[in-house]
Write a structure and sequence with these properties.
The structure is a single chain. It is globular, with a radius of gyration of 21 Å. It folds into two domains: 182 residues, NAD(P)-binding Rossmann-like Domain (Rossmann fold), CATH 3.40.50; 118 residues, UDP-galactose 4-epimerase, domain 1, CATH 3.90.25.10. It is α/β, with parallel strands linked by helices. It has eleven helices and 13 strands. The longest helix is centred in the C-terminal third of the chain and has 15 residues.
């Protein structure tokens, strides 16, 4: 039996991962988290309740783990404190990082060797989203400088079952419900996405004892766009919406922000990352993108298509669409 500790694990990525790992009877799983998010899931799996950003991390130092999968590492000091008390027999520490660590994220097929962000003393303990990439980059440097074998995985925007962010779902919901959809810059800017099933599968595949100490991008699709997402979604759903273009100047004039108001939109032609290293090193095949969209749509169909919490509301969309159609 392999003793596996999962830090986090009951929200999105971790929930999908544990559903996968729990099917393998050679894994002795333990979850360490605060017991706040979805506390009732996985009743048969051992849990250690505690806050990783406190002295509660000492609770995990009493066991000789084979593998640690860190899904909730947002603050460098927390990682330092965890590593201090671990035993040498740890086979591997698997850290889930992010493509947000890159110094330049507006690139074409960015490689793992590209420069990553610095983290100054203020960012080190900052809790705002603006320092997210800096803190994750510092966490990477900490594990890389440690005595432990490690694998660092850098997903891009993750989507799929249990996604609480609604960022990709925003566009699926548009394709399902509306005959006119507001899209930024023709919806043709390219970006990468990571399907949660592929991320969970990759995490399991990296749970091997062999020396690694490597960093990998993990992107299911290295080059897609809002237009392609809407095209695939409409095909699956049997809809045919009209796409109404809004250029970035119009959106900025109306205080519509990239990413938050227009989910997954970055005002750049490219923001995508190469995945060849992980595919070749671990002999992986990722899910066909259209199939992943189909499966994700099936999931939201089972939920009854709730209104997305992310992105601008429909009333504002209609107002902006009306402005654009009058101009034309």
């Amino acid at each position: 039996m392999y003793k596996i500790l999962i830090l986090g694990g009951t929200n999105f990525i971790g929930r999908n991962l544990i559903e996968r790992l729990s099917k393998n009877k050679t894994y002795d799983l333990t979850i360490f988290n605060r017991g706040i998010t979805n506390p009732g899931v996985f009743p048969a799996i051992k849990k250690i309740i505690g806050d990783r950003n406190s002295s509660d991390v000492n609770l995990i130092h009493n066991t000789a783990w084979d593998y640690i999968i860190d899904l909730s590492c947002y603050y460098p000091q927390s990682l330092i404190n965890i590593l201090k008390g671990l035993t040498y027999n740890l086979k591997k520490y698997i850290l889930i990082s992010t493509c947000s660590v890159y110094l330049d994220d507006k690139v074409i097929l960015g490689k793992e060797s590209a420069l990553i962000k610095n983290c100054n003393p203020n960012q080190f303990s900052d809790s705002t989203t603006t320092s997210y990439g800096n803190r994750k980059a510092e966490c990477e440097r900490i594990i890389a400088a440690s005595k432990f074998n490690f694998t660092i995985l850098r997903p891009d925007l993750v989507y799929g079952k249990y996604d609480p962010t609604d960022r990709l779902y925003y566009w699926l919901h548009q394709a399902k419900h509306y005959n006119q959809i507001l899209v930024p810059n023709h919806g043709t800017s390219f970006f990468s996405l990571t399907y949660v099933d592929d991320l969970a599968h990759t995490i399991e595949k990296t749970m091997v004892k062999k020396e690694d100490r490597e960093i990998y991008n993990i992107t299911t699709v290295t080059k897609t766009s809002i237009r392609q997402i809407l095209s695939y979604s409409s095909e699956v759903l049997g809809t045919n919406p009209q796409l109404v273009n809004a250029n970035s100047q119009f959106l900025n004039k109306n205080n519509i922000n990239e990413w938050t108001d227009m989910p997954v939109w970055i005002d750049s032609e490219y923001s995508n990352f190469d995945n060849n290293k992980i595919l070749n090193s671990y002999h992986l095949d990722f899910t066909d993108f259209k199939m992943s969209i189909q499966k994700t749509i099936n999931y939201y169909t089972s939920l009854g298509w709730p209104t997305p919490k992310y992105g601008i509301n429909r009333a504002l969309q209609i107002n902006l669409i009306d402005q654009l159609l009058k101009e034309n």
